[in-house]
Write a structure and sequence with these properties.
mainly alpha; Four Helix Bundle (Hemerythrin (Met), subunit A); rod-shaped
């Protein structure tokens, strides 16, 4: 026959087992939830940094296209003192595309600041400012020679490399 002491003993053992299981399940669920939130945040951060990289790549493409057409325009000007109308219109269109890409780069700067990456933002600001200054000098001051265009390209690629190095460090964090 089962005594009341055995029933109480069994009830205590079952209750303690359930309590331990409940606490373990709670701790495991809380840890898992915290890790899921951290993982989601990290993936979102990486996605945003990849978006920034795409903005900068578009900016680079626009800058290189502007360089190419600026060098072509300068060579026409040095050779004949005149630029053909179609070359001039392509160059002006390229300048407009560069300015649009600079606007997108400003959006990328905001994302970098939001992510707490002021070094990346500063590097991108310098990169974009360099292109804007060259565009202004070439478009409005019209003091751009073929060698100036080649210097622009070389520095542009150097600044791009610097930016992506800094961005890579942010991506690793």
């Amino acid at each position: 026959m089962i005594t009341s002491l055995e029933v109480v003993d069994t009830a205590i053992k079952i209750g303690l087992g359930a309590l331990i299981s409940g606490i373990a399940a709670y701790v495991t669920a809380k840890f898992s939830h915290t890790k899921d939130i951290e993982k989601t945040r990290l993936l979102r951060r990486m996605d945003l940094l990849e978006d920034v990289a795409r903005y900068v790549q578009k900016l680079t493409i626009a800058g290189l296209a502007f360089y190419s057409l600026t060098a072509t325009r300068a060579s026409y000007f040095q050779r004949d003192g005149k630029v053909p109308d179609d070359a001039q219109s392509k160059w002006e269109e390229s300048d407009s595309q560069l300015n649009n890409a600079l606007g997108d780069a400003t959006n990328a700067e905001a994302v970098l600041l939001l992510l707490g990456e002021p070094d990346c933002q500063t590097t991108l600001r310098e990169y974009g400012q360099y292109m804007a200054d060259f565009s202004y000098a070439a478009f409005y001051l019209e003091k751009c020679s073929v060698s100036d265009a080649h210097e622009f390209r070389a520095k542009l690629l150097e600044m791009r490399k610097t930016f992506f190095t800094v961005l890579g460090g942010a991506y690793e964090r």
